[in-house]
Amino acid sequence: MKDGFIKVAAATPKIRVADCEYNANEIIRLCHEAAGLGVKILVFPELCITGYTCGDLFLQDTLLDAAEKALERVRAMTEPLDMLIALGCPVRHEGKLYNCAVVMLGGRFLGIVPKTRLPNYGEFYEKRWFEAGGPDNCWDTLCEHGVCFGTSQFFPFDDVPGLTVGVEICEDLWASDPPSNRLAALGATVILNLSASNELVGKAAYRRELVRNQSARLNCAYIYSDAGEGESTTDLVFAGHDLIAENGSILAESRFKTGLTVSEIDVQRLAFERRRNTTFRALDEPKINLQYSVAGTTFMLGTAETTLTRPVARSPFVPSEKDEREERCREIFAIQTQGLKKRVEHTGSKKLVVGVSGGLDSTLAMLVSAMAARELGLLSDALTAVTMPCFGTTARTKSNAMVLAEKLGAELRVVDITKSVRQHFADIGHDENDHSVTFENAQARERTQVLMDIANSENALVVGTGDLSELALGWATYNGDHMSMYGVNAGVPKTLVRYVVGWYADTCGDDGLAAVLRDILATPVSPELLPAENGEISQKTEDLVGPYELHDFFLYYFVRWGMGPSKIYRLAKYAFAGVYDDATILKWLKTFVRRFFAQQFKRSCLPDGPKVGSVALSPRGDWRMPSDAEAGAWLDELENLK
Q1: Which pTM does this prediction carry?
Q2: Mind listing the pLDDT tens digit for each residue in 573-603?
Q3: Which end of the chain is more exposed for a tag (fewer CB within 10 A), N or C?
Q4: Which of 161, 233, 183 minimizes the C-alpha distance to 1?
């Protein structure tokens, strides 16, 4: 369970109604299959020992005796397994019958959790046979084993810090106040749901959202196991809709099949989110009556390396589905536009000034500025595009900048800064043939001065172009492109900038504009500060600081989930297998950590700019870090990786 990962599964066995021996054999088979896959938590459906659709047979002692015998067989045959197993069984308790989850580990019954909410409407008649469980725990005997009976049970594990399991059953989740609300508030990080939810048109989508949203609200993992093939089809069909969710994301799902649905949950990630989320509050009360329960102690699942199968996106900021990605781009663009509109209205400015280079970031800033000006009803000359060629500017980028300005109806100013920069070199005694950082930064600062002075003369605002990825790496000249009067791209990572510009090209309805946008998308990312070679870009950013898709991956897991370098490295190797070798990933991860710590001083004095996603680096909002924080502990961790 290294790095907090633990393999879990929802199981839907093929059953026979009222054939407890057959059902037990199927359950045992799936338990051993799951153990072979490294599963440590396994959840079976509601009443799977007997079948959910037994009807009035639930009142027959013959069935209940057979269920208890089958349950004992499952316990004995799974004794060698280091795996928490929860399965559904009818249980007699103090003269009443309860629909229960029986939890066991290594041949030991840990607890019996009765269903709290019994549906008795539509196709459901559970109150005809079962009693609802109350909150109090008490002692009982099951298969001649002493065991705790009650809904207020928790199953914590010493060898997986932060792992505490709680249980609810089917309708419990569908109720207005699910037991899992309280279980999570009292410490449960993983909720198991044993279910028998029949299939209806549209119900699967509702069920999926229910599970996903509950995992998000409770900052927990949620494992939902549903009854399937073999249940009576007299009036209903059960589809075995199994779901594994974590903090609002569906990790694995299956429907209309039997067998195992497997994934890994990240308990460290859940613990981090609960610490970070100050509105998630633990209840200040004891876990009721745990003195009756062996679950009041902690258990061990056995340490093992968890092989990952869960989805880990290479581009965590970019949705994989086309429709969702397009909607994300639309939302980001709207947020950027709204933020800029407010700043213009507040300052009383009548114009906007943007430095355009023919690159991606300045292109997005221009698109946002044009939309803001249009929505504010400003005059046609409200947007000024300034392109400032110098030593590294190529004909391609200069041409694209000029065409972009024309297509957006902006006033274009071409200010060649070569003479100004050469004069500056002479003033400070810098040799122009020395292509050091001074050579590069002098150009960036001269461009910013030009933009600011033009803005002053026009009662205008300078719109910043730098993106979130550049802020993370400190890839900006201090008091150069680092500065603006409003940074519209400050919350957009480089990988997403590309998609937003692409979305605009696809939806703008202007073939000429779309063509120049697509050529800009095809241009290598470059600051164009070093002299061009044969008219082509000689300085490619990703050759210098590394691939942005890697850095955005590192940024997401470092800032959003608080992960350390070794865990980020593990996830990156998994996500980028076949794309980058391990040495390359490690090299750029070291670069990311060094630069992130060393360049915080640039983020500590950022211009204003809108937050658009869950990761932001504004010192006034999401990220507060001293500019002189030491990176030693993080770099030491990296030195021990291979």
Answers
A1: 0.90
A2: 999 999 999 999 999 999 999 999 999 999 9
A3: C
A4: 161
Distance CA 371, CA 359 (A): 19
**Domain extent listing, the chain:** 2-296, 322-639
Which helix (H) or strand (E) segment is 10 a member of? Answer: strand 5-12
Residues in the chain: 642
What CATH number does the domain located at 322-639 have?
3.40.50.620
156 within 8 A of 163, measured Cβ to Cβ = yes
How many Cβ atoms from other residues are within 10 Å of residue 413's Cβ?
16
Contact 136, 111 (CB under 8 A): no
The amino acid occupying position 177 is: D
* Residues annotated as catalytic (active site), given as ranges: 46, 115, 170
* Cα separation values, 402 from 4, 53, 224, 370, 513, Å: 52, 71, 56, 15, 11
What is the average per-residue pLDDT within 52-75? 96
User: At residue 51, what are phi and psi to the nearest 5 degrees?
Assistant: 100, 140
pLDDT tens string 450-497: 999 999 999 999 999 999 999 999 999 999 999 999 999 999 999 999
- Residue 564's CB is within 10 A of a number of other CB atoms, namely 16
The pLDDT of residue 297 is: 56
Q: What DSSP letter does each residue of 560-628 carry, written as one string?
A: IS---HHHHHHHHHHHTTTTS-HHHHHHHHHHHHHHHHHTHHHHTTPPP----SS----TTTT----TT
Structure tokens at 193: 């749901």
Tokens of 373: 């000006």
Q: What is the pLDDT of residues 165-217, one digit of tens each?
A: 999 999 999 999 999 999 999 899 999 999 999 999 999 999 999 999 999 99
* Each residue's pLDDT tens digit, 368-381: 999 999 999 998 88
Beta strand spans in 94-231 (E): 96-105, 108-114, 138-142, 145-149, 155-156, 164-169, 190-195, 221-226
- Other beta carbons within 10 angstroms of residue 341's beta carbon come to 16
Query: At which residue do the structure tokens 């990933």 appear?
Result: 585
Higher pLDDT, 2 or 108: 108
> Distance between CA atoms of 154 and 164, rounded to whole angstroms?
6
What average pLDDT score do residues 222-239 get?
95
Indicate the DSSP class of residue 54. Answer: -
How many other CB atoms are there within 10 angstroms of residue 509's CB atom? 7
| CATH no., domain 2-296 | 3.60.110.10
